[in-house]
Give the backbone structure.
Amino acid sequence: MITVKDLVFSYTEKPFIETMNFSVRDGEIFGFLGPSGAGKSTLQKLLTGLLPRYGGSVTVDGTEAKRAGKEFYQNIGVDFEFPSLYEKLTGRENLRFFASLYRRHRDIDALLKAIGLHMDADKKVSEYSKGMKSRLNFIKALLHSPKLLFLDEPTNGLDPSNARVMKDMILQEKAEGKTVILTTHNMYDATELCDHVSFIVDGAIAALDTPKALMTKKRAVQLTYTFESPDGGLEERSVPLTQTGGDATLRQLIGDGKLASIHSAEPTLNDVFVEITGRRLQ
Ligand SMILES: Nc1ncnc2c1ncn2[C@@H]1O[C@H](COP(=O)(O)OP(=O)(O)O)[C@@H](O)[C@H]1O
Ligand SMILES: [Mg+2]
């Protein structure tokens, strides 16, 4: 569905993205995971033709992104960080207006109901909270049932129950065969939703694989144990599972029967991210 080949891009004289390559399969949820400033939104803008001055090639559903025209925008849905809504119109009026730009569109009331905005549909958007605007902007992206969805941090700032509803709707889009490009700095969202995740740092891809393959990278499995410290408190230490044999403290504690607790933990995507990139997600 998407092929990025030798992509080069810069905002200033200094190159920001240097020869990036990746591809996204038809019908998958593909994630860009990375901390703030990593380049996730820049990538979304490049893929959707909003930043046409790049080098290399970015083909999205057969179209070179920098040459995207009207037809291209009929087939994609975009939910970017800053909602693009008319504040003076109501939620429903906004959706009606945007729906009129498309050849076909989904049922507006059904979308409002699904995201839980039906009771507020006739309020002006200027009276909406930040989270309500995010949710409206999200269903706006789904209006024309696009085969490709670009979602930039869609659950950002939502409470857990509204985030749950949105994530289920994203999974529903995938179930209907849509392809989704999702940006997030939330490792739980990436783990749950994405078929493939790319770790983005400083405008580059540091790793790309399925969440499961990334998390079962052997080095990252940690053994954590606690024991009574000399001052009477509890001390906790962690050691990679593959290096327990070299941990003298642990061997001593086992020999003396002085361990207070011991367990191994499947690494989270965050652990793997730190291990590979040396950076934290947030
Ligand atoms: N319009 C712009 N002009 C110059 N630099 C920009 C512009 N937009 C973003 N940047 C810079 O590009 C880098 C990546 O930004 P962005 O893609 O928004 O990151 P993310 O979405 O991962 O937080 C940041 O260092 C940011 O300051
Ligand atoms: Mg961003």
